[in-house]
Design a protein that fits this description.
The protein is mostly helical and about 260 residues long. It has two domains: about 10-165, Ribonuclease iii, N-terminal Endonuclease Domain, Chain A, CATH 1.10.1520.10; about 175-250, Double Stranded RNA Binding Domain, CATH 3.30.160.20. The protein contains twelve helices and three strands; from the N terminus they run αααααααααααβββα. It has helices at about 20-30, 40-45, 50-55, 65-85, 90-100, 105-115, 125, 135-150, 155-165, 170-175, 180-190, 230-250, and strands at about 195-205, 210-215, 220-225. The protein has a three-stranded antiparallel β-sheet with strand order 1-2-3, covered by helices on one side. Strand 1 and strand 2 (about 210-215) form a beta hairpin. Helix 4 crosses helix 5 and helix 8 packs antiparallel against helix 9. The longest helix is centred in the first third of the chain and has 22 residues, at about 65-85. The protein is flat, with a radius of gyration of 20 Å. It starts with 20 loop residues before the first helix and ends in a 9-residue tail after the last helix.
């Protein structure tokens, strides 16, 4: 499909963050896509904290591209899950799509791509761990999709999404689905005991912390998880607990995916 023509004059002609061109080329290498309009790529990795700090055109941050990329991703992901299982009905299709494109899933994809090191952030956001903040990196993944769509068309966006987002392995599939919700449903149905999450370790400097969470069921440890946020650590702990519980209660296996 031919690339879309777009008026990018609102992006301006000044070079934001001079000296980053080489690093953005490295990002292009990782993405497997070369932008015709480099300003779109620059915009896709520029956070509002930078444009606010520099007092430059607010149209140069990623939020508009994120809006567009979210819609493109939903279309491609919907087509993917629809064709993957002709027997799956609307409810399961919706949940399947959500598990693939939720914030946590996109943050994992961004981490694998190394998006954080290429972000253009304000000094304050950078100092407080913005490069690893899942709410930012997941948004940037959508912004990159929007940028590719504008620069190269729907087919190029689809190829990027298939390569980096709609990739399913056993471990990743468990992790990126809503493991905490699935664990709650599993425990309520098969065990009917209390369970809780506990933060058992916190390490690293304030702007680059690592958290370790543990799930206990009826007071017994069932799984641990590690992440850059408490939420991601709990999700990983829930996924680990599900694997343990499925071995103890095989009748519930595969219900949570």
């Amino acid at each position: 499909m031919a690339a879309h023509t777009m008026d990018t004059s609102y992006l301006g002609n000044d070079t934001v963050a001079v000296g980053r061109n080489a690093s953005l080329e490295k990002l292009e290498d990782r993405m497997g896509y070369r932008f015709h309009d480099k300003r779109l790529l620059r915009q896709a990795v520029t956070h509002t904290s930078y444009t606010n700090e520099q007092k430059i055109n607010r149209g140069q941050h990623y939020e508009r591209l994120e809006f567009l990329g979210d819609a493109v991703l939903e279309l491609i992901a919907s087509d993917f899950v629809f064709k993957a299982d002709p027997e799956m009905q609307e409810g399961p299709l919706t949940r399947k799509r959500a598990s693939l494109v939720c914030e946590q899933a996109l943050a994992i994809c961004a981490e694998e791509l190394g998006v954080g090191e290429f972000l253009i952030l304000g000094k304050g956001e950078d100092a407080t761990g913005g490069r690893r903040r899942s709410s930012i990196t997941s948004d940037v993944m959508e912004a990159l999709i929007g940028a590719i769509y504008l620069d190269g068309g729907l087919e190029q966006a689809r190829l990027f999404i298939y390569r980096f987002v709609l990739v399913e392995t056993g471990e990743k599939e468990k992790l990126i689905s809503d493991s905490k919700t699935h664990l709650q449903e599993f425990v309520q149905k098969h065990i009917k005991k209390d369970f809780r999450y506990e933060l058992i370790e916190e390490s690293g400097p304030e702007h680059n912390k690592t958290f370790v969470a543990e799930v206990t069921v009826d007071g017994k440890p069932m799984g641990q998880g590690r992440g850059r946020t408490k939420k991601m650590a709990e999700q990983q702990a829930a996924a680990a607990a599900l694997r343990s519980l499925e071995e103890l209660y095989p009748e519930g296996k595969n219900e949570c995916i």
